[in-house]
Design brief:
405 residues, alpha/beta, eight-stranded parallel β-sheet, seven-stranded mixed β-sheet, 24% strand
């Protein structure tokens, strides 16, 4: 006799294992938190039994969504700067007055771990209510070892105490703190020195940097990557958002998991990413919020076979977005991704951007039983409706919960 822990029946599956991977009138079984069986309900083993059976009421079931690029742990907000820019103040004026990213750094440094958790939790809950089961969280608003570690500890707490799997990314090379003004090379040495203690504490899954004219140079970024690789940590990069700094080629040369933003990506960068298997993470929220007019080269990425993930880039300065469904819609409407590409970008390709494709991202036997249940007519509906959340249930490692947490 086949005995499972949980069986979901009366569902339609979008497995995302090759296109939508649709299986209509289906069932999916869970054993020990992993997918044990899935297929047409008519093909269920005759001797199968389950300790719990859930009727999906004809809903669609997809892999749990994955937001693979966020800065969601931070203190404060910058709505005052948003209003000031719309009233004619320039970003440079705001920065000279002590605003911009350093405003968030000051607030984050001043907050305790509990305060930082309390401020971040509403943003996380919004994503969980939309079927997100895996979340990447970057540091980068501390810029000292103590404050970066504090942010990463809060990220780990979110993954331990709430129904979400958290991947942590150390982004010490995010901006130059005022105490290192005019000494960017010295600060990069400090960032490289932070990696070892953070890794020893088990706080880091990957290392990121901001390679840009207003960030850090190609050579400075490479120093961070070399330090990361010395500690066995994979790398990713904020690349080609505002200009072409050859960041895509750099991260690809280091076997990077992803290059993110990519509005100014060149053909050489695309070729390097394709050869290395580096994922392109598209971030339409920042493009929209900054009123950018240079889209990433989606057609060229598609033609080169570079996998495209989609994420919120949730952050207080350039993408205060807490809806992955809205990010999917934006990727389609602004950049002409197809609804299939958008959903794959928040499941299969997002898993690859976090190096978790063997565990999550598609519905396949042996993978972790992370699902989202949707009251929709077809999978494309997830990218279609603006402001609608059709999620009616979320499953984390086989445990069903309501979408609101």
């Amino acid at each position: 006799m086949t005995v499972w822990d949980v069986l979901f029946t009366n569902v339609h599956l979008a497995t995302m294992a090759g296109g939508y991977g649709e299986i209509r009138d289906a069932a999916i079984a869970v054993k020990d938190g992993r997918i044990a069986w899935l297929g047409p309900a008519a093909a269920l083993p005759a001797d199968a039994r389950a300790a719990a059976v859930h009727d999906g009421d004809g809903c669609w079931l997809t892999p749990g969504l994955i937001d693979c690029h966020t800065h969601i742990v931070h203190a404060g907000n910058r709505s005052d700067e948003f209003e000031a820019r719309l009233n004619g103040t320039t970003y440079e004026d705001i920065s000279r007055a002590g605003g911009g990213i350093m405003s968030t750094v000051r607030a984050t440094r001043a907050a305790s771990e509990d305060e930082l958790l309390a401020q971040s939790l509403p943003r996380v809950r919004s994503l969980l209510a939309e079927g997100v089961t895996t979340l990447e969280i970057k540091s980068g608003y501390g810029l000292t070892l103590e404050s970066e570690a504090k942010m990463l500890r809060v990220a780990r707490r979110l993954g331990r105490d709430y129904p979400v799997d958290v991947a942590t990314t150390f982004l010490g090379a995010h901006a130059l703190p005022p105490e290192f003004a005019g000494r960017a090379d010295d600060y990069i040495a400090e960032v490289c020195a932070m990696i070892a203690p953070l890794a020893r504490e088990g706080l880091v899954d990957a290392v990121d940097a901001f390679c840009e004219r207003i960030g850090f140079s190609h050579d400075q970024t490479e120093r961070v990557f070399q330090a990361a690789r010395e500690h066995g940590l994979p790398v990713k990069l904020h690349a080609e958002q505002l200009s072409d700094q050859r960041g895509a080629q750099l991260v690809a040369r280091h076997g990077g998991l992803s290059a993110d933003h990519l509005e100014h990506l060149t053909d050489d960068g695309i070729a390097a990413m394709a050869a290395a298997g580096t994922v392109a993470v598209l971030l339409p929220g920042a493009y929209y919020f900054l009123r950018d007019t240079t889209p990433p080269p989606v057609a060229a990425l598609r033609a080169a076979g570079v996998p495209m993930a989609v994420a919120t880039d949730c952050n207080p300065g350039t993408s205060p977005m807490t809806s992955l469904l809205l990010a999917m819609n934006m990727a389609c409407t602004l950049w002409r991704l197809t609804p299939l590409e958008a959903l794959a970008g928040c499941t299969a390709h997002a898993a690859r951007a976090l190096r978790r494709q063997a565990l999550i991202g598609t519905l396949e036997a042996g993978k972790r039983a992370d699902f989202a249940l949707w009251r929709i007519a077809r999978p494309a509906d997830l990218s279609y409706a603006i402001g609608m959340n059709p999620c009616v249930g979320v499953v984390n490692a086989g445990t069903l919960r309501a979408p609101a947490v």
